[in-house]
Each structure stands twice: as structure tokens, then as C-alpha cells.
Amino acid sequence: xxxxxxxxxxxxxxxxxxxxxxxxxxxxxxxxxxxxxxxxxxxxxxxxxxxxxxxxxxxxxxxxxxxxxxxxxxxxxxxxxxxxxxxxxxxxxxxxxxxxxxxxxxxxxxxxxxxxxxxxxxxxxxxxxxxxxxxxxxxxxxxxxxxxxxxxxxxxxxxxxxxxxxxxxxxxxxxxx
Amino acid sequence: xxxxxxxxxxxxxxxxxxxxxxxxxxxxxxxxxxxxxxxxxxxxxxxxxxxxxxxxxxxxxxxxxxxxxxxxxxxxxxxxxxxxxxxxxxxxxxxxxxxxxxxxxxxxxxxxxxxxxxxxxxxxxxxxxxxxxxxxxxxxxxxxxxxxxxxxxxxxxxxxxxxx
Lengths: 177, 164
Known about the structure:
A: 177 residues; alpha+beta; Immunoglobulin-like; 21% helix; B: 164 residues; mainly beta; six-stranded mixed beta sheet; four-stranded parallel beta sheet
């Protein structure tokens, strides 16, 4: 009885350790928060490590306070523009559905272009709305760029994406669904 | 007898459509067309399987699509400024499109019935065109009548079409 129990335990332990050794590695990366500046430039930052499956060989260095201190990095232009500019999608219920109003507010006079894409699907039908064009926002002014109203029957879904460009760059984005 | 039946059918359809039909937010008065302050889109659909697509690039454009029925499709493309387009379709399997390039153009397509198809293309400025289509025929109307709603009483008289 004792022998058979010991034998069974040994077999189970061996099976578990071999399964752990043979299991593939899994990595999940999640980013959240404000838009990453690299997204506006379309190119990854040069400091990004190359993911070739093997850890880079780095000579061991004794930790020190100086090595841990982050290097001062100049904020990119995009963040500066974002700081003095904001965009939102206002959603209002109407008697027949929903009204979508993209709004921008600039803390300094700014000109740019916007694009708003709305997709709606439901039993009554589907709608694709795309609006865009130039805009001018004065200092501290809240500018309504356009209005889009559409019917929303029960169970219908929609998604609205607002992108604002100024100075040749995307400076703001808002998504509502 | 046939005329009376058609009238009854039209009235029933119009009553079914009811109030609240979409219309572009621009307006006409005795001084002409006035575009909205900001670009505007209004899409109202009821029934099932309808499809609507609106694309506008430019300031103060206005577009509206109203579809009641089954499998109607409407498409509006506008590039420029202060253009106005309206599509109204009541029935089944109708297809309408409006394309405008330029400024201050007004166009509309109204279709009542089945398997109808109509399109308006305008390139230029200050152009105006409207098409009303039923199974009995197609009628051209001026742009200033595009804001009229077929759900309203006296619509056919106001657009100058007899026999409805």
C-alpha cells in the first residue's frame, strides 16, 4: 500500500516537472493611457529592444543611484500640441436616435483638419458617415466641427472615431462606441 | 378607380412614414439657400436591411438620408463647401445616390415604390437639381423644393405633379 502510494506520487511529480519544462513561453503586453507619441510618427523609437527570442547579453554592473536616475528627455512636439489642444466627441440622445458632435478646444489659436468616421449597424440598417475638413479655433474657443444624427433602434451599435491634425501631425484622437 | 386607389395607397404610405423625416439642415427663403453653420449629417432609417453612406469633406455641407422600408440604399458624397443633399426613400430595393463637387449646390432624390434607382451628379457651384421618382414616372424639381417632405399633405401639388 505504502509502496504503491509512493510510486504514484513519484510518477505525478515527474509528469508535472516535464510538462513545465516543455510548456511554451507566453508574453502579454498591455499599454494604456494617453496616446503614445510614436503612434503619430509611424516609426518605433530607436531604443526599443529587438525581440529575437533571446535576452540581450549585458555585462553585469553594480546598481548605483546614478545609473538608476532617468535621463532627461525633451518632450516631443506632439505632446506640446496636445497640451494646448483637446478634442472630444459629444453624444446626445435625441427623439429619433443619437447626435454625435465632435468638439475641439484650443488654448491657443490653432488651425487644422479633422476627420470623423461613424459606423452604425442595427436591424434597421447600417450607416457609414464620414465627415472632415479644415477648422480654425481661436484662443480658448470651443468649436463644434459638425453634427451627425442617426437613428438607433434597439440593439443597434455605433462607433465614432475623431482624428484631428494640425501642423502636419495628428494632435488629438477620440473614440466613442 | 385606379387613380383613387393610387391616391389611397399614396396617402397610406405617407401616413405610415409619419413625421420626423430627416432633412438637411440648410434652409431656403426668399433670399436663397442658407447653409448650416457647421457640417451636418442626418440619417434616419426604419424597416430592415437598409444601407446609408455619407461622405462630406468641407465646411457647412449638409446631408440627410431618410429610408423607410426594406433593402433601400442611399449614398451621398460631397466635396466643397455649403452643399446640401437629401435622399428620401420609401419602399423596397430602391437605390439613390448624390454626388456634388463644388460650393453651394443643392440636390435631392425622392423615391416612392420598389426597385427604383436614381442619381444626381453636380460639379460646379450654385447648382440645383431634384428628382422625384415613383412607379408612374420621374419628375425633376427645383432644389428649393427639396426640403419638402412627402409626408406632408399637398406635397404632390406643391411640386407640381398631378395624378397623386
